[in-house]
Specification:
By secondary structure, the protein is mostly beta strands. The radius of gyration is 18 Å and the shape is globular. The termini are far apart. About 30% of the residues are buried. Bound molecules: zinc ion (ZN). The site of zinc ion (ZN) has 8 residues, from α1.
């Protein structure tokens, strides 16, 4: 689960559309790595109701080194509580070599796009505080096994996620909800106003093969 180790995201179920937390990894035959499934899909696999072939055809493909962690929201009669990031979390231990840098919240208005952005040295950690945001990542890295891949992730407090965006991966976001959306970010480096590690491209004409328009279907 090292920060630079590639491949699959160990935090959530690998089945497309399932964002439940992953349980114990299941080793795959012929050194093909590990399979990460939620409790329900793991039980179905172990009971023989889900074949490896079916899983392979239904497997979510994430950008190399990207991480998506499902967070737990605890409810009781007073309300609820959701931990976002802890010092003893593997994401923090392995990906914040200099320790805490800063946290900020960014609001985006309805249907406005903030992006494209990219950092050479910094990872971002996005958490959706309110509203519903579409976060899009584009892997342009020539040395990446997932070069050319686009990932779309919906951030909403109803299904709390922490999304880690690797260095050199283009990213942007758009609010889908009328009230706009708020994203809390924990970057791994301090923002340097004199020499920002931030590169930008136009969201619509910047050469990234993605249309922000919401497609009716
Ligand atoms: Zn699942």
């Amino acid at each position: 689960m090292s920060c630079s180790a590639g491949g699959t995201n160990p935090y959530i179920c690998q089945m497309v559309g399932c964002f439940e937390p992953a349980t114990e990894p299941i080793p795959l035959p012929e050194g093909e790595g590990n399979l990460f499934l939620c409790a329900k899909h793991r039980a179905q696999y172990l009971a023989g109701e889900l074949s490896l072939r079916h899983i392979a055809s239904m497997r979510a493909r994430y950008i190399h080194d990207m991480r998506v962690k499902r967070l737990n929201r605890l409810y009781d009669e007073r309300g609820n509580l959701c931990e976002i990031l802890r010092r003893d979390d593997p994401i923090y231990r392995e990906c914040f070599p200099d320790g805490f840098a800063q946290a900020y919240i960014t609001h985006v208005d309805y249907h406005v796009v903030k992006g494209w952005h990219m950092h050479l040295k910094q990872k971002d950690h996005f958490f959706g505080v309110y509203g519903r945001a579409k976060v899009v990542l584009y892997d342009e890295r020539e040395d990446s096994p997932t070069q050319g891949l686009i990932n779309e992730i919906i951030l909403t407090p109803e299904r709390p996620l922490l999304v880690q965006i690797p260095e050199r991966v283009w990213h942007g976001f758009m609010a889908l909800s009328l009230e706009g959306a708020g994203i809390l970010n924990f970057p791994t480096r301090l923002y340097d106003y004199a020499d920002p590690d931030e590169y930008r491209r136009d969201p619509h004409t910047g050469g990234i093969p993605y249309s922000w328009a919401v497609k009716d279907r």
